[in-house]
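[Q] Does anyone have a clean structure-token version of this?
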Amino acid sequence: MTSNNSDMTGLVKILSLTPPALQDNTSDADRLKGALSLALTGRVQPRIITIDMSLLKALPQLLRQWSYHVRCAVFKDRSQWILTGITDAADTRPLAGLAVDLGTTRVVLRLLNLSTSEILAESSFDNPQIAIGPDILTRIHYTDAEGGLEHINRLIIKGLNREIRELCLSCGMETADVYSMAIAGNTAMTHLFMGLNPHWMIREPYIPVVNTPGVVKADELGIRLNPLARVLIFPNVGSYFGGDLIAGILYAGMNTAEETAILVDVGTNAEVVLGNKHWLIGCAGAAGPALEGGVTEMGMMAGPGVIDRIAIHPDTLQFEIHTIEEKPPRGICGSGVIDLAAHLFLSGMIDIRGKFVRSVCSDRLKEKDGILHLTIVPAKNSATGNDLTVSQADIDSLIRSKAAMFTILETIAMSVGMSLSELQTFYVAGTFGYFISPRSAITVGMIPDLPIETYKALGNTSLGGATLALTSPECFDEIDRIRDRITYLELNVNQEFMNRFSAAKFLPHTDRSLFPSVKVLL
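[A] Here you go.
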């Protein structure tokens, strides 16, 4: 009946169908489904292939126009394969897929050639929902107002459509050339993207509308791609454990590893997962904003002129500052904040409580509106023309955030009877993970005192996991298996967490035996 001529990647197949004859009166749709199922699974199983009605209407003409030699784009939805596009096999125009990291602050897109898995282009833009509020809670409360949910949903959909169009144009393509999309974000961002009411997510017992959105038609979401295109929305486990972390687990390969490892993704929240191929446990907590650089008055996202590394000379106590692209300093990002706190502590400029030591800080310390400020960059050397300072309130906020981060790690490890010292691999995701100095983070007691080689920066694991979903068909089923394997630890009602948190609000910790290398530095 049919023959499979060749295939490309798992989501694109080139097929040569045996044309119909009096001796073979198989319908056009069944002929295509049989060949496609054979190419995908090694067996002729027409029933596992779904063809939308709009494509079914055009199919007879297309098959004959292309002499039954076709190129097919497919997408998997559990046990079914969906035909999302069909072209002439001789057509060289890329069949594209789109991976999206739907961040609270920043949205990142990656355009892929589904035939070759080649990255065609990448771009990013500020999440337009920031106009409503920088944090998740503000946005969720906004949806309670009349028309609020519709408005905040339109903001992200319009932003995505605009960016997708620009990304396609940069490659000489049209949005109709995009046949599939995989999007990973935290639970709240996923709900707002889908236009689902997140009201009960932030109210005990913290219930989202849906945990496994699955595969949805792009046009049902308002996303302008090929009319047949499908969108895989990564599942979430709880209100504060979203698809971005499941994508991270997939990208890190924790789901297939024998060795127990931990993955930390610091964004608006700090999300943590511990485990291996046999078991996974995850939790999330509010430790992110301060560790991203939001702690200080001069804090900002990484960019040209932003301080990303700081050291303090042990003898002269002079600040040794590095800025991104070596431009004049205009602010500080998360990695710089942690470096700063670590070196202020090691130099004796702040004590174990994080309080400024006047005798060591000398004339760099000034009082403004009743709050102490330490000058890091004097006005004459800054890009802003003003002193760049860190205040006592800033340091206090950082210490609370680092204490929360360490306590999250300690609590999740102890929940399975492990010590953090037993870890052999510690994955750190996101831009935070890429820029952070593990040595400085250990010094302030934010992460455990492990050998530096234990720490592995993975970059944007949310985007990486979404990319895998578009390029490796076996990942479709694995995503659900990962989700079903995760035990979610709710920190909001965990009394042990609160007890440990109090102990962690010192530099590096009240239990100095947990940080032996910091003791050596002192």
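[Q] Thanks! Anything notable?
[A] The chain has a mean pLDDT of 90.
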